[in-house]
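=== RUN LOG ===
request id: a7f3
mode: sequence -> structure
chains: 1
length: 433
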Amino acid sequence: MRASSSNRSKLDDLRHVLRESNVRWLYAGQLISQIGDGVSKVALLWFVYALTGSALKMTLIGVLQTLPPLLFGPFAGIVVDRVSKRTLMIVLDAARTVLLAAIPVLYACDLLNLAGLYVLVFSVSMFSVAFGPTLSSTLPLMVEAKQLTRINALMQSAMTIGQLLGPALSGLLIATIGAHNALYVNAAAFFLSALCKLPLRLPPAARTRRSRHPAAQVLEDLREGVSFILVRRRLLFLLMIIASVFSLGETSFVALLPLVGDRLLHVGPTTLGWLWSSLGLGVFASTAWLFWTTQQDVCLRLRLIGGAAAVGGVAVLAVPESGSIGLTAGLIAAVGAGSGLITPLISASLQERTDRNLLGRVFGVFNTGTMASAMTGMTLSGWLADAYGPTIALAAIGLVKLVAAGLSLALLPLCRRLAASGSVGVREQPGRS
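=== RESULT ===
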């Protein structure tokens, strides 16, 4: 009876989240854009690798995608906290539509070289800098604090479906119309995503005190966000460190998948697309579990993060010895299952412990740290793969994931002490206005 009552309560909570029209429209936009993004992730990397034959030049695409968040992430958070989040998301999607469509158009006109491609990729990333903090800052405005893990898992499921369908679709498109033309799909997806955000109804941006000098105000806003993390919520800072170490390995593994497919597995773009989709299958399994389960306290989340990183590390280490496409797909799915737990758990921890008018800055700083690790990881893994082969690069990635797992578990005693002292306190106001 108790289990049945608990299940009914969970179903009621799930229905409550899905009844919100804001949630449905935002989810629809994310679902469309993530499928398009899944197409371009494979197509863009394959396009560069086909042009250059270099793993390092291929992984430079990932580096260029992480540079803008690294350089401007905290400042983007200041903008997010000051303007309409609905308007900002629409503008960002529209800009990315135009820039992504420019790549195949210029290539068809024989006006695109590698340097120009890098500039366009960097420009798309420039407009993407603020989107992550904006989305993360928007979710607490839609649901109550107790629903934050679920809504983060729901939004991650859009990414998961994109990883399941996008790469497989990308492989088929690359084989039929070419990698450059496959980018039209992502451009169209961003356009439809912008349309889905038009019906959103969100509270206005919080009014903040403005300095006479704009530069001084920017510095004060940035100082306030950094101080909140380092002084008022120290455990959040530790969670950011763990996420950064995990990102060091995770993004490196994803960026090297085309190389793994070519040099280790000897497969073409279609099979690579299905292997990439298996990553999304693993994420989907862990996302579904998070969406169904009751929200955990922060120390339990830390244990889950440690276990997820350990599973991913072991799976990456086993990929070179898999010996078959089916087993490799299973290992990649295990990597996805581990990574699928981490983002919703950390995001929910940040959202429920951050004042609404600081959410953009907190997530801007968070994204900067993770992107810095991602850029470092992709550069080093590309160099390792070119210099010593993909097996050595994968071994390094697996060890980094195991370090993240050990760090998570080592911080558990500190988490319990901080929780007992109130240093990880949840903000009092409800998530929804």
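=== NOTES ===
The chain has one domain: 17-198+215-420.
Residues 61 and 263 are 19 Å apart (CA to CA).
=== END ===
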